[in-house]
């Protein structure tokens, strides 16, 4: 083999290594803030149980209960810093499994599970009631849960609008007084870069309680993007409403993450695509870094209401900081969840 060939291979490998460990991995949260005596809620850290039909013996994807999902990695990190962490998941069974994982991986026993289904306003209300009765503090609320599929919630709302936006809207509002009492406290909303493609169709919301219809690939993608735009507009409006209190709020894009996307795909897809996904996508520890940055980085308060990605504050397009749309959406959301 010629030295030139070896040199070329070496250069390519080095470039790939640097690409994976600098560009894809992204910035890590560097704060060493400790959270002893603080309480955090993280929504959505369970993993869907491995779907029927998936053959685990040929699956490259870790089975349910292992380190997948950025919510769980966020919870582990907060627990390691000493926080009391409430895991808010919709399924008791998967929530208990996540609880065992988080306790084991963090080495902390100050982690508890409380049932919360964001697709049910009744469940959100009873979660808030139980939480306020059982716990005396709330320092961090991490709105992480999200769905990407069509359907309707228990209350007849569009599923993505209902879970990604309205459920968290009601939850945040019901817990706001406790957050204010415990200030300085923070609310962190896991949004997505997909919000860039989002639009808010108020006519559709008013008549159908959904951002849009349709179950085609593009309709679902569009509905997801719309719901993630709602998260950002809300952070914008909430920051205004919280001025003068010690509660601050942030939204973020976590990166493109290898949660377990390939879970239900064919073995061929897994052998071909999964190595590429593992290379080009962040793992879940890396995917939790911007959330952690917004939750614990010291001195972030002046940036309340802003949007982060790669642990850095980012600019938003005008539609994502449109005061009138944010206010209108807030008022409509209050009506939809019976707060007004
Ligand atoms: N992965 C990415 O590349 C990416 C990119 C941009 C933004 N995000 C956002 O990051 C967040 C976390 O995503 P992820 O990648 O970690 O996905 P994930 O593993 O699918 O996590 C979503 C979590 O939300 C929970 N959830 C769904 N519906 C719920 C409901 N009705 N009530 C309560 N919890 C519910 C799920 O619980 P179950 O186990 O019960 O289903 C799951 O634990 C989401 O908001 C997502 O939109 C992800
Ligand atoms: C994230 O930030 C790091 C360090 O500033 C940079 O090297 C990397 O390219 C960024 N990644 C992305 C995807 O922007
Ligand atoms: C799963 O894969 C293994 C190994 O390829 C095979 O022996 C087994 O029959 C498969 N099981 C199912 C349910 O397909
Ligand atoms: C998070 O998003 C929800 C729903 O969009 C909203 O109700 C809540 O006020 C937001 N909070 C923050 C801090 O952005």
From TrEMBL:
<protein>
    <submittedName>
        <fullName>Uncharacterized protein</fullName>
    </submittedName>
</protein>
<comment type="similarity">
    <text>Belongs to the short-chain dehydrogenases/reductases (SDR) family.</text>
</comment>
<keyword id="KW-0732">Signal</keyword>
<dbReference type="Pfam" id="PF00106">
    <property type="entry name" value="adh_short"/>
</dbReference>
<dbReference type="InterPro" id="IPR036291">
    <property type="entry name" value="NAD(P)-bd_dom_sf"/>
</dbReference>
<keyword id="KW-0560">Oxidoreductase</keyword>
<dbReference type="InterPro" id="IPR002347">
    <property type="entry name" value="SDR_fam"/>
</dbReference>
<feature type="signal peptide">
    <location>
        <begin position="1"/>
        <end position="16"/>
    </location>
</feature>
<dbReference type="GO" id="GO:0016491">
    <property type="term" value="F:oxidoreductase activity"/>
</dbReference>
């Amino acid at each position: 083999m010629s030295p030139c060939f070896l040199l070329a291979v070496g250069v390519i490998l080095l470039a790939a290594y640097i690409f994976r460990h600098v560009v894809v991995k992204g910035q890590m949260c560097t704060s060493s803030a400790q959270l002893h005596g603080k309480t955090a809620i993280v929504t959505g850290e369970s993993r869907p149980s491995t779907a029927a039909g998936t053959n685990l013996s040929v699956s490259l994807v870790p089975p349910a209960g292992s380190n997948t999902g950025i919510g769980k990695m966020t919870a582990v990190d907060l627990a390691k810093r000493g926080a009391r962490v409430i895991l808010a998941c919709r399924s008791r069974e998967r929530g208990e499994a996540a609880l065992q994982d988080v306790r084991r991986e963090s080495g902390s026993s100050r982690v508890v599970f409380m049932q919360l289904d964001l697709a049910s306003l009744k469940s959100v209300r009873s979660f808030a009631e139980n939480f306020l009765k059982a716990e005396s503090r709330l320092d961090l609320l991490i709105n992480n849960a999200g769905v990407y599929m069509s359907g309707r919630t228990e209350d007849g709302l569009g599923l993505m609008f209902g879970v990604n936006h309205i459920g968290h809207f009601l939850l945040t509002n019901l817990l706001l007084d406790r957050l204010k009492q415990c200030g300085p406290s923070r609310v962190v909303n896991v949004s997505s870069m997909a919000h860039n493609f989002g639009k808010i169709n108020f006519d559709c919301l008013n008549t159908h309680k959904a951002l849009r219809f349709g179950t085609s690939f593009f309709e679902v993608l569009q509905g997801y993007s719309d719901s993630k735009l709602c998260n950002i507009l809300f952070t914008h409006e909430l920051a205004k409403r919280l001025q003068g209190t010690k509660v601050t709020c942030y939204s973020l894009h976590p990166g493109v993450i290898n949660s377990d996307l390939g879970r239900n795909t064919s073995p061929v897809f897994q052998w071909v695509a999964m190595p590429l996904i593992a290379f080009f996508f962040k793992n879940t520890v890396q995917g939790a870094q911007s959330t952690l940055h917004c939750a614990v980085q010291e001195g972030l308060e002046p940036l309340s209401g802003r949007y982060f990605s790669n642990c850095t504050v980012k600019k938003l397009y005008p539609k994502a900081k449109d005061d009138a749309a944010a206010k209108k959406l807030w008022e409509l959301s209050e009506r939809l969840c019976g707060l007004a």
